Structure prediction request, 728 residues.
Amino acid sequence: MQTRAKSFCRNCGALCSMELTIEDGKLAGVSADGSASPYGAYMCPKGRASLDFHNGAEGRLLNSLRREASGAFSELPAARALDEIAARLAALIAEHGPRSVAFYHGTGAYRSVLGALLERAFVSSLGSPNFFSTMTIDQSAKWVTAGRMGVMASGKPSTRDIDLAVIVGNNPLVSHQTYPFGPGESGAPGKSFAAARARGARIVVVDPRRTETARYADLLIQPLPGHDAALFAAVAHILLRDGTCNTAFCERFVTQLDRLAEAVAPFTPELVARRADVPVEQIEQLARWLGEAERPFVGSGSGPSMSAHSNLNDHMIETVNALVGGYRRAGDLVRNPGTLKPRVCIETVVPPQRSWERGVKCRTADIGALYGEFPTALLPQEILVPGPDRIRALIVFGGNPLTALGDPARAVPAFADLELLVSLDARMNETARMAHYVIATSQHFERHDLSIPGDSLYPEAFAQYAPPVVPGPAGTIHDWEFFWGVASRLKLPLTLKYWNYGLSYDAIPGGLPLDMERAPDPEDMMRYLCEHGDVSFDELRANPGGVRPVRPPQYVKAAPDNGARLELCPPDVAAELHAVLEEVVDDRFKYRLACRRILDAMNSAYRDSPQTVRKYPLNWAYMNPDDMREDGIDDNALIEIQSESGRILGVARAESQLRRGVVSMTHLYGSLAPSTDPYAQRGSHTGRLTSLQKHLEPINFMPRFSGIPVNIRRAGGDVPAAALLATI
Ligand SMILES: Nc1nc2c(c(=O)[nH]1)N[C@H]1C(S)=C(S)[C@@H](COP(=O)(O)OP(=O)(O)OC[C@H]3O[C@@H](n4cnc5c(=O)[nH]c(N)nc54)[C@H](O)[C@@H]3O)O[C@H]1N2
Ligand SMILES: Nc1nc2c(c(=O)[nH]1)N[C@H]1C(S)=C(S)[C@@H](COP(=O)(O)OP(=O)(O)OC[C@H]3O[C@@H](n4cnc5c(=O)[nH]c(N)nc54)[C@H](O)[C@@H]3O)O[C@H]1N2
Ligand code: SF4
Ligand SMILES: [Mo]
Prediction:
């Protein structure tokens, strides 16, 4: 028998609406559903791949596992695993206190709504400060900027309203990462850029690679990676030189303009053009367009955050956005004020908080929490360095930190030292292979979800509820059942709250206290989460394609001056700018390794889907053809990539979109251990070129995943033609 059901994808932030076909209780087909979605009908190949994964592709885990003394894994019922995990946790907490237990929230956890909220409830009830996530090995530079500069509460404008988009190290056509970090719309990103251009908006892309997104660019600047801070300091220099800042905005909302002018004075366009190796005219043109724009939006992706001077890169990009007033202004239409959690949008500055200077600190570094989290790069030393509050147990929820962290020579021994490592996942990834317990969890179309992660990010107000469409395999449990089940065994009370970034879970008043004796009904939890919304749970349930609430248009409200200003050039930023100026180029290395993403995989997930294996048998080392010719490297040649901290083998691929001097590879491929055969290992682990002890950023301890200085040479021998033919 065949039936159809509406749902939405949970692989990435776009949350594309879908229509699923179910045949005899199994997922059989999927198509994009544009019946209510603000993106229209859109989905990418990972939408289809998630169906195959549900149905068992990529070796989906069907049962929970326990690692035995021999090192082998044996299956066990989830309830039994939870009993044993709770018993081990209880013993650790009794002996060493709650701080001995840490949590790592991976990318798979962000869109598991009940799981993520009960995880927060669990951490709050336990009282451990040890919360880590991918954000501090990703774009927490944005949090650092917010903490040092302050935040414009009115937010950035919708791409539907802008006349200039500046997109720095961000490739939404592949990653679907856009608002609020950068311009664009996550679902159907190309359509949003095409529409902006059709309206007359200009688009500028700043990326060492002529990206898929650059197809929409009026200006493409291709700097060497790692120079965004200098580049945007030069843009600020020109705006101040020419008096083309948005004076009305600056007078009212920013401060430290004099200090900024002094700090960026040495960053002349000529100097920066030489350093970043771009034509000086392009820097001047970008600044001119910014000066002319009425409605600019300057934003960035992960590229600048992963490169050298990560926090400063972000700060300078945001500084330029502030100089030209790239925020919604009083009276502007707020196209999406939120649906499940509507918000009033006010034109005011939230002053810098510098949260890391206060409160509970890390054990091994004098640094406090950033948006409630400790830096993930410190996790190995927080485990290893002896002392009373050492981390002894780690619960990994939807993540693969052992590969994501980089520097496995440092990370693996730390994880091996844990007394309890639990992985909550449906894949047996590198981290799960080291875990004491792996809890096989249900997948996206088998559980209840709500579009909370997209609520304020959709281009228009919209909400969708996804009920389970097929049952999960008998041996799996839902993510939330893990946290509820362990808490109930530990006699920890849990309260469900509607949490979002910027809020402290503990400080949110009210909430729904959960019955800790009888498992809660997920529908009751969904209903509770809709209680303060513009649509009710019943309305969402009755409209499975999603609901666009009808209500009067909302506008940004003016507010009395609270005295707060965006601090464009605090002393630490000025000092960092000065250090960049003084920096000498590391000419021991000819190339810079840059990060990138591929459409078919989501970090380490879907890396092994049949389609990805076909298209990307491994993670190619893309190089500019002229560089390859100069260095005598042919297509498919085996190359050695050597950084200061490590060495990997790669397989070269010519890519003319890439500027010279850069090798571009995607991440989370290959084995953690050194390997001599990238084919056998399905690629190379670029994290082995990164150090967790050197070149960490101040404040968030962000490691360097892009702009890594490397040398490249032929490693003798091409990849056997047979191997290539077999895989392409
Ligand atoms: N298909 C797919 N989608 C994903 C993911 C995935 O793995 N696959 N991952 C998700 C995750 S976890 C994240 S964080 C987001 C990231 O979303 P994005 O930031 O859009 O990620 P990328 O596509 O890697 O784009 C980064 C760009 O930065 C450029 N770059 C590298 N170094 C520099 C530099 O120093 N300066 C400048 N200006 N540019 C530089 C690279 O060439 C690349 O084009 O994507 C999410 N979406
Ligand atoms: N060298 C290098 N290192 C990097 C990066 C880089 O560009 N270069 N990028 C960094 C970035 S931006 C990030 S975000 C991190 C990624 O770091 P991680 O999040 O640690 O890694 P992922 O591979 O995304 O792991 C996601 C896991 O979640 C699982 N999963 C998916 N959906 C669900 C679900 O609903 N429930 C549960 N329980 N599990 C689920 C998947 O099976 C997968 O195993 O890596 C960082 N590390
Ligand atoms: S863009 Fe692809 S992965 Fe992201 S939600 Fe849509 S279908 Fe899923
Ligand atoms: Mo990420």
Q: What stands out?
A: The first strand starts at residue 2 and ends at 8. The chain is about 30% helix and 20% strand.
